[in-house]
Structures are given as structure tokens and as C-alpha cells.
UniProtKB/TrEMBL annotation:
Pfam families xrefs: Myosin_TH1
GO cellular component: myosin complex
GO terms assigned for molecular function: cytoskeletal motor activity
Designated gene of the protein: Myo1h
Residue stretches making up the TH1 domain: 47-217
Domain of life, per lineage: Eukaryota
Lineage: Eukaryota, Metazoa, Chordata, Craniata, Vertebrata
Source organism: Pycnonotus jocosus (Red-whiskered bulbul)
Record-given protein name: MYO1H protein
Amino acid sequence: FLMQTSEMLRNICMRNLVRKYCRGLTAERKVQLQQKVVTSAVFSGKKEGYLESLSQPFLDTRLKENDLNPKVLQLIRGENIKYVTPVIKYDRNGFKARERLLVLTQSSAYVVEMAKIKQKIEYSTLKGISTSNLSDGIVVIHVPEDKQQKGDVILQCEHIFETVTKLCILANKQSLVKVVKGSLRFRVGSGKEGTMVFTVGPEPQVFKDKTGQLTVV
């Protein structure tokens, strides 16, 4: 009987402590925890660097709205900008690296070059999000095969866990995130596909190998 009473009191005490903690959370802290729960569901035990990312709080955005070119703001007017971060975009043909911005609004993802929108992906059409199990910052945004899209988007992000989490939450497509091993296929356009290979080496690099594949070390 004493043991049962002790267990009941322990459970009551724990519930009160949890309730007190939850009530004391600020709105910002609550959002952080909600995002980290999604990050855990997507990456825990799957991608290198996840454990190290746990102690790093996500920022609301890496660049502010007024850091964007006024022409870009005019083109996406009416959409609520949620997150902006610098990225490296790799061409689907030739894999040349180009500095770009990834702009996430309430309804779409935009790849932006200075004053130009290079590609728009509406979340409703997004087919998938892929990243590797290694510590690289590569993410591939898979788009449908239609005339409005040039092909899948290959990006390198400095804050990969933060960026992918923001994207899949805004798109409400957490289940479409895949963490792959070895290689992945991406759509180049016009019904063609390319291959990206992930490997381990002494220093990080991204290059086109002799077979024409994009190799991420």
C-alpha cells in the first residue's frame, strides 16, 4: 500500500512540474521546441551532425525581409515571408555553383538571384525533400514534371537542419523528407535524370566527377 501511495504521489508531483514548466514557456520557446520535435522525427539517428545541432537554437530567419531586393519583394508581394537564408545552388547541367537566396513564404519556396526569381515551387506541388545521412549540407527539393519547372533544385545550406525543418513545416510535408545513403536521383528536366553520389573524404567538397555525376564529399 505504501509503495502504491508513493508511486501515485510521484506521478502527481511529476504532472505538476510538467504543467508548471509548460505554463512558464514563452511563445518563442514553445515554437523552438515544436520545431525541434519535427527535426528529431526527420533526422534523429539518420543524419550525422544531428546530435551536435540539438543545442543550437533555430533562428526565425537568417536574413531579414528588408535585405531582399525591392524587385523581388514586389514580385512576391501579398505572400507572407517566413524564412530567408543564403544558399549555394548547383546547376542541374554541369553542376556549376551559384550563390542564391532561398526564400520561404507561407505558400511557396523561391530560389532568388539578386533581383530575379530563378525558380518558384508551390508547396502544394512539392514531391519530396532529400538529404544525405552524412554531415554535408546538401538538400534536393523535388518538383513535378511540368513545363513550369526546370527540374529538381540542388542546394547547399550552412544550417541544413534548420532550413529543412522550416521547409517541411511550412509545406506541411514532413513525411516526404528522405535521408538517403550512398546516392540519390534527381530530375534534370525534359524527362532526364541525374545522379548525386555521397562519400567520405579528408575535406568537404562538391564536384563533377569523370562519369558526369555530382560527387559530394
